[in-house]
Amino acid sequence: MFGDRLDLACRFEQLLASRATTRGLIGPRESGRLWERHLLNSAVITELIPQATRVVDVGSGAGLPGIAMAIRRPDLHVDLVEPLQRRVEFLDEAVQSLQLTATVRVVRGRAEDVSTAAVAGGAAWVTARAVAPLDRLVRWCLPLLRPGGTLLALKGASAAVEVNAHQAVIHAIGGRDVTVLRCGEGILEQPTVVVVVRRGRQDATDRKEGRA
């Protein structure tokens, strides 16, 4: 999956197993399954993302999926949005250690903050993994997308149930074309389940402010 950047992925795995685990960003029980459950699970969603675009990874935590995506796809520009200082410090260290500074930027802030949108907004793609329930996540992430942009929310096996439960709310706040996809079938033992939500050309905020 990582091709000629496998060594870089291995170095990231070592950072997750050591510094991230020591700091409580990765659970100690995860050390034996970092590849399948975290690195590959995260990197495989890049099959949905076109070439040479910008991705905002919300609630990046230990850099998943953001850093894994940036390793697999050096053509992407990735903003890692994370509010907690100890996680931001790890992300900064990881980006520097892996020499990803040309394509990866760490942004401290909450996705829903106006200041975060001012720095990282207008993206074509937003990703999020294990951040919040879908209705809340869509409300946070849509303002970071340009109209027509796409949110990729990594979810578990109950993704379809969650979509059904929140479909009306998602539509009301400007989410469109909500679908559930499985990435990595035939590659991963457990494919990654992704909820795809497009930001409408005119969402609730645009209507309120009279924008087209």
Brief digest:
With 212 residues, the protein is α/β, with parallel strands linked by helices. 39% of the residues lie in helices and 24% in strands. It has a seven-stranded mixed β-sheet with strand order 3-2-1-4-5-7-6, sandwiched between helices.
Question: How would you characterize the overall build of this protein?
Answer:
This protein has 212 residues and is of the alpha/beta class. The chain has one domain: 3-Layer(aba) Sandwich (Rossmann fold), CATH 3.40.50.150. It has eight helices and seven strands, in the order ααβαβαβαβαβαββα. It has helices at 6-22, 34-43, 66-72, 85-97, 114-120, 134-141, 159-172, 204-209; strands at 54-58, 77-82, 104-108, 123-129, 145-155, 175-183, 192-199. It has a seven-stranded mixed beta sheet, with helices on both faces. α6 (134-141) links the parallel β4 (123-129) and β5. α2 packs across α3 (66-72) and α6 (134-141) packs across α7 (159-172). The termini are far apart. Residues 204-212 have low confidence and may be disordered.
